[in-house]
Structures are given as structure tokens and as C-alpha cells.
Known about the structure:
The chain is mainly α. The chain has one domain (3-197). The protein is built from 9 helices and no strands. The protein has helices at residues 3-14, 23-31, 35-47, 52-57, 63-72, 75-88, 91-107, 140-158, 165-197. Helix 1 crosses helix 7 and helix 2 (23-31) packs across helix 7 (91-107). The longest helix is centred in the last third of the chain and has 33 residues, at 165-197.
Amino acid sequence: MNTPSHAIINLALLAKPQLSQANFAIVIGGILPDIPIFIFYFWAKFIVRLPEAKIWSEAYYQPLIQNLVATFHSIPLAIILLLISYYFGWEIMQVICISLVLHSLFDLPVHNNDAHRHFFPLSNYRFISPISYWDPKHYGAIVALIEILLVLLASLWIFPSINSAIGKVLIVLVNIFYGSSYIYFYSRRKKEEGKGKK
Length: 198
């Protein structure tokens, strides 16, 4: 799933009106697993200046990067941290950990050749799903549309309970970006396929 989707869907599932201070922790847990990927991309693209194709075909698969991504997407490590947080009574950290686990659970069914090692360090197993949240070769157009609709429904559900003007603006912008990106990407792809058939 796309990173903002995790934040919005996790908010819809975990947020409680009486505990609005936990919303930020839910968002942090929703996006935290993907932060190493963003840092890696920034480093590879703007510091090392690697070509886009090389970033995702070679550099991303270096052991250090893969281990960092696996650590942040690890369900066992998030559960261990949740238990430690529960023992010490760190309520905000417990919320972050639950949101971390949800992020990984939602990633499991929608990653094909880019699957993460969600059981690291206990196992290097990757669940290779038959569907992908982006790859048209693995029903990406359908899965992406379902994701957009889920995010829209989640946004409508949580919007009234968001007190922050910035939060509301971000939710609206994410939905506009998703809808326009989907139309642009898949309509362009259909045009290219049409040209290829001629």
C-alpha cells in the first residue's frame, strides 16, 4: 500500500474521539515502516545521483537497505516493542506499535516481487502475493482503485473527528493526489498499449 493510505486507514480503525491525542501516534506508526525507503531514495536520487532504474533494480536490494526495510516492517519486533511498552505503561508507544503491526498486515496481501520480510529476524520468508498495489502485471489497476476507494471511505469516516486544520488539508490533498494520479497513470498506460497494438 502507499504510505499515506496506511496513515489514513489506521486512523479510521484505531482512532477514538475521546483519545484524540493518540491520533498523531497512529499516524507515526502508520508511516514509520516506510521511512527507511524514503531516506534511501533521497540518498540514492539526490546525493549519489543514481538513475531511477538502477535505484530500484540494484541499490534497493543491497543487504544493508533490505535489512533496514525488514527491521522496520518486522511484525515480531513490533510485537516485542508493544509488550515492552505495555510492561512499562508507555501508552503512546503501544499505539505506535499497534499501528506498526497494522501497516505490515496491510502490506502482506498487496506486494508481489517487492514483498518485505515481515517476520525478520526470525525468518527471511517473503510472502509473494499474486496481487500488487501498483504493478499492472499483477492486477495493480484493480488493487490501486480499491485502495483509493478504501482511503476515500476512511477519510470520510475520520474527517469530522480531525481537529487540526493541517490534518484536514492533508487528507483532502492525499485523496486529490490519489484520484488524479490513478487517472493519469492508467489512462496513459492504456494509450501506450493502444499504440503498441497498431
